[in-house]
Amino acid sequence: MTKLVYFAWVRERIGKAEEEMTLPSSVVSVADLLNHLKTMGEEYETALQFPDVIRVAVDQEHVEHDEPIGNAREIGIFPPMTGG
Amino acid sequence: MSSKVEPYIRVQREDFDLQAEVDRLSTQTSGIGAIVTFSGLCRDEGGKLAALELEHYPGMAEAEMSRIASLAIERFGLLGLTAIHRYGKIAARENIVLVIAAAPHRQAAFDGANFVMDYLKTAAPFWKKEHGKDGSTGGWVAAKDADDAARDKWK
User: Fold this and answer.
1) How far is the alpha carbon of B61 from chain A, nearest alpha carbon, in Å?
2) In this complex, is the C-beta atom of A27 within 8 Å of any C-beta atom belonging to chain B?
3) Which intervals of the chain are annotated as region Disordered (chain B) (predicted)?
4) pTM score
5) What pLDDT score was predicted for residue B3?
6) For the residues B5-32, what does the mean pLDDT come to?
7) CB of B79 closer than 8 Å to CB of B5
8) A83 to B85: CB separation less than 8 angstroms, yes or no
């Protein structure tokens, strides 16, 4: 099981802050994961329709979309950051 | 030459005390000749904004701030680095973020604080949502290309 955590408007559009799921073995990269999530329903499709503005962290470290997710315990999905 | 300098990192709901944080840094470290402090405040946007709601990724926010702070310590030879970022609802004119960089001389302290803020804005997992004075919940603040450009100048 992998824990997915969502923040800001990604969280609002998906409609939940976190969930656990078993990812299919075809999901290798971050891009694969985002494509997989988009098949899970309209709210996911809406949240992730512009992958260019989606940021992903694997086990709380930033990763690019072409990187593998490996044996991630926790994957964070969120918009570009606006702190400071 | 120097032993490892550990940054002081806090992610907290409550406000911070600028002088107390400067004192904490300056009284614990010898050799400091320059301290630069940066405070980021919630703009009132011409009276239209009541507050910002700051959301963060617990755990990762602290980890990213520590990572960025350590990069700055190494790169500029800082003697101390404090970074405090608030979360939750922050009213207009209240503090959001504090960065204190201490060094033997001013240039490293200025650059260290500047570097930390430029990276923090683009890599620390915080997000701002606007609350209008008229009671409206505005949108999420959009990331600015200018912030990416500011960060990239350090590369």
Assistant:
1) 9
2) no
3) 131-155
4) 0.95
5) 64
6) 96
7) yes
8) yes
CB contact under 8 A, B55 and A7: yes
> What's B41's domain CATH number?
3.90.1170.40
Percent of chain A with pLDDT over 90: 100
Domain A2-78 has CATH 3.40.50.1820: no
- A:64-83 residues touching chain B, CB 8 A cutoff: 76, 78-83
Question: What residue ranges do the domains of chain A occupy?
Answer: 2-78
| Number of domains composing chain B | 1
User: For residue A26, what are the CA distances in angstroms to A30, A71, B8, B59, B151?
Assistant: 11, 13, 42, 29, 35
Assess if residue B2 is contained within a domain.
Answer: no
Query: Of the candidates B60, B85, B127, which has its C-beta nearest A82's C-beta?
Result: B127
pLDDT tens, B74-85? 999 999 999 999
Mean pLDDT of B38-43: 97
Q: Nearest by CB to B60, from A57, A80, A84: name it.
A: A57
Report if residue B3 sits inside a domain: no
Q: Please determine, for the modelled complex, whether the ipTM score is greater than 0.90.
A: yes
